């Protein structure tokens, strides 16, 4: 599952932090890590129309994005998860 998500982060940078955080615990996974991975997949199902698409022959394209930050959201190292 982590490998599939690592492949997707090229076009979905919004899940990059969560996927890398779960990948850190691949050697000794716990049930909570599986729950987090399943939550990422549910998020992807609900936002299938979002992502970065790189057109081949177009000279210009529009990128629409948002930024969200949450301080002290990471319980592992208590750093900002922006």
What does the model show?
- This protein is mainly α and 82 residues long.
- The chain has one domain (1-48, 65-82).
- 38% of the residues lie in helices and 0% in strands.
- It contains 3 helices and no strands.
- The chain has helices at 2-8, 16-23, 31-46.
- The protein is elongated and about 45 Å long.
- The model has no long low-confidence stretch (mean pLDDT 76).
- This is Putative mitochondrial protein.
Please summarize what this structure is.
By secondary structure, the protein is an all-alpha fold. It contains three helices and no strands.
On the 0 to 100 scale, the average pLDDT is: 76
Largest sheet entry: none
Distance between the termini: 24 Å
Count of DSSP strands? 0
Helix/strand class: mainly alpha
Strand content: under 5%
What are the low-pLDDT stretches, counting only 5+ consecutive residues below 50?
Answer: none
The general outline is elongated
Share of helix, binned? 25-40%
Backbone CA Rg = 15 Å
Reading the helices and strands in chain order gives HHH
User: Number of helix segments?
Assistant: 3
Notable traits:
82 residues, 3 helices, mainly alpha, Putative mitochondrial protein
Topology:
Layout: H1 2-8, H2 16-23, H3 31-46
């Amino acid at each position: 599952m982590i490998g599939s998500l690592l492949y997707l982060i090229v076009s979905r940078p919004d899940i990059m932090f969560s996927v890398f955080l779960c990948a850190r615990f691949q050697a000794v996974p716990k049930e909570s890590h599986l729950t987090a991975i399943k939550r990422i997949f549910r998020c992807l199902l609900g936002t299938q129309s979002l992502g970065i698409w790189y057109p081949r022959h177009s000279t210009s394209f529009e990128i629409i994005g948002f930024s969200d930050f949450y301080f002290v959201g990471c319980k592992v190292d208590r750093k900002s998860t922006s």
